[in-house]
Design brief:
By secondary structure, this protein is α/β, with parallel strands linked by helices. The chain has two domains: about 180 residues, P-loop containing nucleotide triphosphate hydrolases (Rossmann fold, 3-Layer(aba) Sandwich); about 70 residues, Helicase, Ruva Protein, domain 3 (Orthogonal Bundle). The chain is built from twelve helices and seven strands. The protein has a seven-stranded mixed sheet with strand order 1-3-4-5-2-6-7, with helices on both faces. Helix 5 links the parallel strand 4 and strand 5. Helix 1 runs parallel beside helix 2, helix 7 crosses helix 9 and helix 9 crosses helix 10. The longest helix is centred in the last third of the chain and has 17 residues.
C-alpha cells in the first residue's frame, strides 16, 4: 500500500472488534456513544463532533487493542503514526516529517488515526525547541483538522507530556487503563480462549483470580498460549488445569517494574478517567 511506503504512516487492517477488549467497560460505553456523534459529523456543530481520545496506562493492559477496536467500532480504516520513525531523522527534520504525516492523513479522511506512544519523542535527542514546536503544531492541528478524522493517541508515560496537551478540550477524554481487576482478568481469559476456538464451558476459571493478581492482559494472553502449547505437545485438548499450571511460569510486570507501575498509577489517580467501572486499585 502506498501509504506504508512513507515509513511514517502504516495502514492497520481491521481485525479487532470491541468484543476483543476484555473489561474497560466505561471506555467502551463512551466509544459507542461517540460513534453515533461521529457518524452525524456532517449534520451537527463542529464543537460536538468527537475529535479524539488519549489512552494512557501500564504497558500490556490494552491501550493498543482499544485503539484498534475504535476503528472497527466506527467502521473506519485505521492508520498508525510511528512517532519513533518521526523522530528518527530518516524523513528529514522531525517537525517537517510530523507536519507532512498529519497533512497526508487529512487526505485519507474519514479514518481513525493512531499516534502510537505519542510521548516517545520526548526521550529522543530532539533539537532545542523542536519538541515544543511539534506539540504546538499538533495541538493546533487537533483543533483545525477535518471532521472526518478521529485521533486515538496512546502513551505509557503521560506524565512526560506537556500539560497543555492533556487539558480538557484538546482530547475529548483522557482514559487511564489500569491493571485489570479480578472479573476483568477472567473476562480476558475468556476473550483469548474464544479467539482460539476453545470450548471452556467446563473449565473452573475462578481459581485463576488468585494466581493472576497484578497481571496485565498481555500476560494473561501468554498464559493461555503457554497452556495451549503444553496441551498440543501432548496431543490433547486444553484443560483448566493447564491454565493453572501455566500461571507458575509468569512473573508479572507489576512485580518486575513495581516502582514504575506504582508511579504511573499514582500520577493518573486524579488526572484521568478510569477506563474500568471500579474503585481505583492500589
Amino acid at each position: 500500500m502506498l501509504v506504508n511506503r512513507t515509513g511514517m504512516i502504516e495502514y492497520i487492517p481491521s481485525e479487532t472488534t470491541i468484543e476483543h477488549v476484555g473489561g474497560l467497560e466505561i471506555m467502551k460505553k463512551w466509544l459507542m456513544e461517540r460513534r453515533k456523534l461521529f457518524q452525524m459529523r456532517d449534520r451537527i456543530s463542529a464543537e460536538i463532533v468527537p475529535k479524539g481520545v488519549l489512552v494512557m496506562g501500564i504497558s500490556g493492559c490494552g491501550k493498543s487493542l482499544s485503539i484498534k477496536a475504535i476503528a472497527s467500532c466506527f467502521e473506519l480504516p485505521l492508520y498508525r503514526i510511528d512517532m519513533i520513525a518521526i523522530f528518527s531523522g530518516r524523513h528529514g527534520t522531525a517537525e517537517g516529517a510530523f507536519a507532512q504525516a498529519c497533512h497526508m492523513l487529512e487526505s485519507m479522511a474519514p479514518a481513525v488515526v493512531w499516534f502510537d506512544e505519542i510521548e516517545a519523542g520526548i526521550n529522543t535527542q530532539a533539537k532545542e525547541g523542536e519538541l515544543s514546536r511539534i506539540f504546538g503544531f499538533f495541538l493546533t492541528w487537533m483543533q483545525e483538522k477535518t471532521r472526518g478524522l478521529f485521533v486515538g493517541a496512546t502513551a505509557n508515560r503521560i506524565d512526560l507530556l506537556p500539560a497543555e496537551m492533556i487539558r480538557k478540550g484538546r482530547f475529548d477524554e483522557v482514559f487511564f487503563v489500569d491493571l485489570p481487576l479480578e472479573d476483568e482478568r477472567l473476562e480476558i481469559f475468556r476473550v483469548h480462549l474464544r479467539r482460539r476456538g476453545i470450548d471452556f464451558s467446563g473449565f473452573d476459571l475462578v481459581p485463576l483470580k488468585t494466581f493472576t493478581k497484578g497481571w496485565t492482559g498481555a500476560e494473561i494472553e501468554q498464559c493461555v498460549v503457554s497452556a495451549l502449547t503444553t496441551a498440543r505437545l501432548q496431543e490433547r485438548q486444553l484443560t483448566g488445569e493447564d491454565l493453572l499450571n501455566a500461571t507458575a511460569n509468569v512473573v508479572p510486570l507489576s512485580k518486575t517494574m513495581k516502582e514504575q507501575v506504582d508511579h504511573i498509577r499514582k500520577w493518573a489517580f486524579d488526572r484521568a478517567v478510569r477506563a474500568s467501572p471500579r474503585e481505583f486499585g492500589r
